[in-house]
Each structure stands twice: as C-alpha cells, then as structure tokens.
Design goal:
- By secondary structure, the protein is mainly beta.
- The chain has 2 domains: 112 residues, Sandwich (Jelly Rolls); 96 residues, Sandwich (Jelly Rolls).
- The protein is 0% helix and 56% strand.
- It contains no helices and 22 strands.
- A 7-stranded mixed beta sheet has the order 1-20-17-22-15-13-14, with no helix packed on it.
Length: 237
C-alpha cells in the first residue's frame, strides 16, 4: 500500500475578496510540481463565493466536472440550455467533451456559498457534452458510505466518462468500516469535509486529504459528527 497525505494547511490558497479558494492540486496561480494530480483526479478546489458573485461564462473541454455545494446554492447556466440552481445536498456533473460554455454564480445576494469543484480526466475524448444534477439527500444512509457517482448510467447517483466511484459518509457516532476497491489499478482519494477520520492508521481532520493506492481495501474509523468524501479513480491517465 502506498499513501500520500495533504494536510489542509498545505493547500494552495488564494483570496480574491469575492472568492476564497483552497487548491489541493495545482490550479490557476498555484503551481506545485509535486501536486499536479492524483491519478485521473486533476482538480479539487474548496471554494467560498461571496453573495451575488461568481464565474462569468467560460469554456471547458474534455474534462468531467463535478460540483458539490456544501453550504448555500449555486446558479448554473450553459450553452446547452440548462439553467438550474445547485443546492446544498445536490451533486452536479458536466461532461465537457468537445466543448461547453457555462457560468456559475452564488444564487443568494447576501450569503456565501461553499462548494467543492472536482475535475476528472475522462476515458473518452470529444464526447457530446452532457449535464446532470440530482439530490444526494435521496441516497443518504446515516453512518455508512453511500455511492453518489459511478461510471454506470443505471447505477446509483450520477455517472461520468471514467471508471470512478464517489462515496460520501456522514457519521453521527463513531464507526469503523472497510472500503473495498473495484480494481487493483485504482486508487482512492479521501477528503475530510468535516470532523475527524482515521484512515489506515493516519489521523485526518477537517479538509485534510489522503491518497491511497496499491491496495485492495482500506480501513476507516470515523469519529462522531464527521463527513467524508471518498473518490476511487484510475491511477493511470
């Protein structure tokens, strides 16, 4: 088993006034050659966007983009005709494929929105762009890991063009469990949204990250009032 740990206070941070962001991997003005990606996980941004502010229309291509609001609501518009509000408790995916334009703004004028923005390298290029959004509240199972994303259109949660599985665990009491990987060629990146979680003997706290590979399964011990995002992804781009 191989591991890498990214403590919350070692992330790249930027404060633009209206936007405060922490980058786990190199992005925008933050460049760290030791943190370019983890397998096909290219971007993990932890954003806080001020009321009424956001990102004006901009392009993407050949990337699977996942948005998970943690607090507040995010308004989305794109050139496919989608105009939605992504609420806390939702997950949104965009397959940018051969090209898409979209914008994202805080849906509230006075309250900040806190959101995870995740980019995954796809396993197919130049696909027809697509959009999906669901409430993950409907999938929630207290004190267990529950799947929110997979490669399979007919599986639980949303799907993307990649052999990836995302799970969330929300724990209101202490719980120990194992996570079994789908493939030995995959790795898992764990991101602690809230609270304290021990993974393979490593103690992690709020907004810490840990990558694990060359493993068949991983041992997790979550403390009371903790929340965890597990991202299983291929290690080869």
């Amino acid at each position: 088993m191989n591991t890498v740990i990214h403590k919350a206070d070692t992330r790249g941070s930027e404060d633009h006034g209206w936007l405060k962001v922490n980058h786990t991997f190199s992005f925008a003005n933050y460049h760290n050659p030791k943190r370019m990606h983890f397998g096909v996980l290219r971007v993990l941004n932890d954003d806080t966007i001020a009321g009424g502010r956001g990102f004006s229309t901009h392009p993407h291509d050949n990337m699977e983009i996942i948005t998970i609001p943690l607090e507040g609501d995010l308004e989305h518009k794109d050139d496919m005709g989608n105009g939605t509000v992504i609420k806390s408790g939702d997950i949104q995916v965009m397959s940018a494929g051969k090209g898409i334009y979209h914008s994202e703004f805080n849906a509230h004028p006075d309250l900040p929105v806190k959101v995870l923005q995740i980019w995954i390298f796809p396993n197919k290029k130049n696909v027809t762009p697509r959009y999906d959004q669901i409430s993950i509240r409907d999938l929630s199972t207290p004190n267990e890991l529950y799947q929110i994303l997979s490669p399979n259109e007919d599986d639980k949660g949303v799907w993307i063009h990649q052999e990836a599985w995302f799970n969330i665990g929300e724990f209101n009491h202490q719980k120990s469990l194992d996570y079994t990987l789908h493939s030995r060629s995959s790795g898992v990146y764990a991101f602690i949204i809230e609270g304290d979680v021990e993974i393979e003997g490593e103690k992690l706290s709020r907004r810490d990250g840990m990558g694990i590979w060359n493993a068949d399964s991983i041992k997790i011990s979550a403390e009371k009032n903790s929340k965890l995002l597990l991202m299983e992804i291929p290690m080869t781009i």
